[in-house]
Hints:
The complex is a heterotrimer of chains A (581), B (367) and C (373).
Chain A: H1 2-16, H2 20-44, H3 47-57, H4 62-97, H5 103-111, H6 118-129, H7 140-143, H8 150-153, H9 156-179, H10 184-192, H11 197-208, H12 210-226, H13 229-235, H14 243-252, H15 256-280, H16 306-333, H17 347-350, H18 369-401, H19 406-416, H20 423-434, H21 448-471, H22 476-484, H23 489-518, H24 521-526, H25 534-544, H26 547-575
Helix pairs in contact in A: 2-15, 2-18, 2-19, 2-20, 3-15, 4-5, 4-9, 4-12, 6-9, 6-13, 6-16, 9-12, 9-13, 9-23, 10-11, 12-15, 12-21, 14-15, 16-26, 18-19, 18-21, 18-23, 21-23, 22-23, 23-26, 25-26
Chain B: E1 13-22, E2 25-35, E3 40-44, H1 51-59, E4 66-71, E5 74-78, E6 83-84, E7 92-95, H2 107-117, H3 122-135, H4 151-163, E8 169-173, H5 181-198, E9 201-206, H6 209-215, E10 218-223, E11 226-231, H7 233-238, H8 243-248, E12 255-262, E13 265-268, E14 271-275, E15 284-289, E16 294-296, E17 304-315, E18 318-325, E19 328-335, E20 345-350, E21 356-358
Parallel strand pairs in B: 3-9, 3-10, 7-8, 8-9
Antiparallel strand pairs in B: 1-2, 1-4, 4-5, 5-6, 10-11, 12-13, 12-15, 13-14, 15-21, 16-20, 17-18, 17-20, 18-19
Chain C: H1 5-27, H2 30-40, E1 42-47, H3 52-62, E2 67-72, H4 75-87, E3 95-98, H5 101-108, E4 114-115, E5 135-147, E6 172-175, H6 181-192, H7 194-205, H8 218-228, E7 232-234, H9 237-245, E8 254-257, H10 265-268, E9 272-274, E10 283-293, H11 299-309, H12 318-321, E11 330-331, E12 350-352, H13 355-372
Parallel strand pairs in C: 1-2, 1-3, 6-7, 6-8, 10-12
Antiparallel strand pairs in C: 3-10, 4-10, 5-8, 5-9, 5-10, 5-11
Helix pairs in contact in C: 2-11, 5-13, 6-8, 6-13, 7-8, 8-13
Amino acid sequence: MTGLIRQRDLIARLLQSRNVVPLIMVCITAILVIVPLLRIVQISLTPDGLAAWTDVTNSRLSTNLLWKPITNTMILGACVATGCLLLGGFLAWLVVLTDVPFRRFLGILSTLPFMIPSFAAALAWGTLFRNDRLGGQPGYFAANGISIPDWLAWGLLPTLVVLVAHYYSLAYTMIAAALSSLSADLVESAEMAGAKKSRILFGIILPVVTPALVAGGMLTFAGAVSNFAAPALLGAPVRMQTLSTRIYGMVQTGNIERGYVLALILILAAAALLFFSDRLVSGRKAFTTVTGKGARTKRFALGIWRWPLFFAAVALGMMTTVIPVLVLFASSMAEQSGGLFSNWTLHFWIGPAGTDLAQGQAGIFRDPILLGSILTTIRLGLTVAATTMLVGLVIAHTIVRYKGTFLGNTLSQLAFLPLFIPSIAMAAAYIAMYGTSMGPIPALYGTFTLLVLAATANLMPYAVQSGRAVLSQISSDIEESARMTGAGPIRRMTEIVLPLAVRGILAGGILVFIKIVRDLSLVVLLFSSTTPVLSMMAFNYAGLGFMQFANAITLVILVICLIASALVYLLQNKIQGWKSA
Amino acid sequence: MSAQDQISTTPAIAIEHLTKRFDGNTAVDDVSIRVPPGAFLVLVGPSGCGKSTLLRMLAGLEPPTEGQISFGGKIVSGGASGVQTTAAARDAGLVFQSYALWPHKTVEGNIDWPLKVAGWSKQKREERINEVLKFLDIEALRNRYPAEISGGQQQRVAIARTIGPRPGILLLDEPLSNLDAKLRVDMRSELMRIHRGTKATSVYVTHDQVEAMTMATHVAVLRDGRVEQFGPPDELLLKPQTTFVATFLGTPAGNLVPVTGNGEDFVFNCVNLAPTAIAPDLDTAQLLYRAQDITVGRRDGRPTVKATYAESAPIAGQSMVTCLIGDLRVTAIVDGFFRAEPGAEIDLCFLRDPDAVFDADGRRVTE
Amino acid sequence: MKHSMTGTLLSAMLMATAPAMAQDLDTMTAEELYEVAKTEGSVTAFSLSSRIARIETAFEAQYPGIDLIGLDINSTKQIARLEAEQRADIYAVDVLYLSEAPVVLRDLLPEGMVTKYVPPRIADQVPAELQADLLTHRLSTRALMYNEAAYPDGTPVANLWQLTTDDWRGKVLMEDPSQRGEALDLLTEIALRSDEMAAAYEAQFGMPITVDDDLDGAGEQFIRDLFDNDLVMVGSSSTLRAAVGDINATDPSVGWTTYSAARNNEKEGWALQISNDTVPSAGILFPAVLTIAKNAPNPAAARLLIDFMMGDDTPTGGPGFEPFYVQGDYAARRTIEDHPDAVPLEDLNLWTMDPAATGAARARVLDLILVLQ
Lengths: 581, 367, 373
């Protein structure tokens, strides 16, 4: 009898208990994330898979297949993360906390590079720095008599520079969001203590925005480590390989098992790093800056450094934004793919079909599929951004509230994992697991829904991390006082937490939008439709050798991203009017 | 009439054997307190004594490890059935130390939202908001945001928000600790007025014993998670049961002098202070002397001890003179304005018998 | 993974009758297939080439009432997707048009995931070896190309082994074989042809070749020597073509790419030419195959499409083959003539890849390359 009562008590306790929410979130994340992971592990444990493990880790192939690439990958990841944090952090500080002129402009400039596909930056680098190792057209500098050594034109250094130039805007977005929720009190208390500006920066501000730094660092690390385009373009001539190129190569040459083994190793290495960085952010109270006492943003006066720093920031923006876009634009206008700045024509944009040019292919705006593709792309972007923001917010909230507990830590690791699962593995696993009907859930194969699910899982880390960085700065008192009023968890979330965290959430949302709109690997395996998304169109053109069309479409993608970002920026500024200054 | 005698009616708050443990650390240890409706209970003690944890358990934000809490006879936490009524369902309001105002809502919005959540009609809400704004004298701030008002004003808004739904129990977590001294004094009377106006039972947490002495109907002195003593403030002040209470309460706090029995007398620094007859069973003891029982200078027939002058604070035409005897701080009251050179040698005279005797463990010895 | 009761019954019936039906369909003519296909109404095809869009227009014009859904997916992804789908019991695609024949032969065909279909109409017009395991649609190339403008007197590479000498150090380009299947196949073919490579070595250096102990034949020795001679790997094929073919280059490299790249010479300002005279061979011919997926939902339409794509009886193959009728690609069906601007197939000095043998040897060559990198 007592046993029954105990059980009933237990269940009642469990349901009532505060562990329900994280449990649910863990389940959801497990379905989204763990399933593909298990799939890869399962494949790697088949006889072929086990053979692959030996080949990769313990054979004469290992040096070139694993150890050199993983070293390159780790160096790349660490250096890119550091560079991005420095650059992004500097710009964020400049725009949010100082009185540098034209802050808005700089802010926008700093978010642009992320919208430009990384191969555009690699292309730009090649255009400038290519030497004659390949024969053919040398780059701008080499053509004008400046000899460029191999280590500058190809390999680790250019890849590093290109990736930093691409990803620093990611770090900028996260750090800027965190800095803008920094209360003036903290800064002013240090000013009162007589601390110099630099001291305040390093001693007060930096530590307090550590969550954002860690989040930004991890995301840029993840991005650098899984990036394929840059090392492929810039590394091949000097035989530099990274894990991403190796994984891609293994899959492309039909060695799926080796590819998955490499992917698993990559995941393990990254998870270890994540674990240690998670430790850094333990102890939520230390980073509470949004307390119930209201918040103002305080701006440093830069004095004589105002204009020099402005120009430095602009120069940075120019180099990482304008130049790649120019190259992209030029190459979409150039008749010959070799001579970028001669013989411009609008043919690839609006030219009619049947001419001599490009084997009679019409310009992209005459392609009837284009409009449908633009709509499909935007629809995809908005849907995925919405689902990831929702899932990301709830997961981030759960992680922050249950920090230090087993469930909280588990959720934290899980939410980050998708970044390291190569999209091709993710896509294959998703088809296998969810492509057919399971009980009441209908078969999702080939549907928009399946793609949205996979994309949500794949890109959720962005929303989670930016949500985390912002949420960990909201004092628990604010939520508890809401709890006291009797508001249920959903109401609390929508009416209290969301408005306070919205800036960080939107920052994550726009990132997701941009990523999915540019994505190729997920889309190509999961989405079958007669109106492909824009990235597929560009890819198709590139495959045909029509680089001009491909680049034109890439520019269309860029414009879409720009418009979306502008909208979000305006939105962000409108909704936080409760902060003065 | 002791505090316990007053409980013939159902206590508004009854805390019984309440214990809270965190990871092996006991924050609240077997606390039992009961107060009648309308009481103003002050939980006072140094940092880390468990008062805030106790308050949070009353609010329902933390579940107790052992023991139970009842409001008006109804169990809200713990007990044999393991009930844990949610914070919202308890008819209690909590004013946070940090005020915890929602920064994205105006003052009016902050007050309005809990009423909305509780399902009040629009008209009732408007009426109540006006009422509360007037009651706390913050009508002019209606449309401002928390970031735009001062600390004192924020505090009023926090209180307004909490009393809006007319909770039966009002919990306040160190509400005055962030205010300047003058404001603190003003706010004390304000809070009393509010307490009387709302007719709620209030539980007030502070580390400032002055607040306890001036505002409370019942005081619980807490140390290391335990209740050192519970009762009306006067009782605690006049009849402290432990040395901790004796030296914690009172402005200035009482002086505890350690003495050793020497046959007939208790001796301190070779001076006979009191006969051993007052506590015949003890070899060593601690004697409680109020500041008004010690003065500066020699008096005939009264024991005098040499001390080193430390500081002097003026208070209503008199001076509180603090001296050091070795490591022991002793405060005396002297008429008029008193000053001396820091470090100068001074005579301290014990004018009367000690007010209380405590044994070496700090417990009071009853006569 | 539950299906409804009726669904299970239906599919059971279908599967029971499917082999019989398929047998009939295999022998039908195009007209007969069209009648059945009209009841099916649509056909889904994966294609490695985006030219499927033009096929779509032509096919729907010729066979109204059947909707061709053409999806442009590269060969590797096609294989991955098909495997994933079929493992999940999803059968949504009818026709696959892909290269990577070695992988298809090794992984898909033995499992029955794809099946061969040869339209009876053209069965005797395709050489036997090109329809042995799967139907080849066309042959593509990976050939050594040089810059005609810089070397107007013909190819500077008379013998492949020259590429391992100091003259050509760092001046030989190739797509990364650990990334691109076609480049890997090229090297695998070289490895398989060890006798010819040994003979060519003797012709070049005047003495018999000594092969390193851990290598298996002159072919593999060539690969090692080539890598040791600073073979430059390129990330994208368009970069390679531009690098080799730039008409203004003074000292261009040579490299392996597809012969059909030369058709863009005028538009791009290139001077690419195939190095056909190189001994023992300039590269490889590899097949792009047309297959039908297992349990194709529209079996008749699938066959109709394949029949269509193999072209009509005109010399250029008609609207079904026309998008592929380019210089540098060769129809498997010999009634379709080679493009006049290209070297005719018979004169082409390229090894024809044997997908089965390549499939078996690929792994070893890949491992060799990985070590050499």
